[in-house]
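Running low. Invent one:
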Amino acid sequence: MRFGHFDDAAREYVITTPRLPYPWINYLGTDEFFGLISHTAGGYSFYRDARMRRLTRYRYNNVPTDTGGRYFYINDGGDVWSPTWAPVQADLD
């Protein structure tokens, strides 16, 4: 299955479907505060120590999963969706 492609002009990998076998994790941080955010908006954050000073729930040393994040649900005239692919897993426009 094809999940994306390299864009030589933009020098980036473009993910074309959110249905990846494992989460695509982006790491953000400073000297003391860190956050890990997946392509479907799952993730967690911590201050200095990922094990002892987590700010959001995460099972340490777990296989990367993409659940347990904080999500927004929007009810638009009965059509429920989210700004991210998870949790409703609706096809994106």
Remarks:
- DSSP finds no helices and seven strands in the chain.
- The beta strands are 4-7, 12-15, 25-29, 33-38, 43-47, 74-76, 79-81.
- The chain has a mean pLDDT of 79.
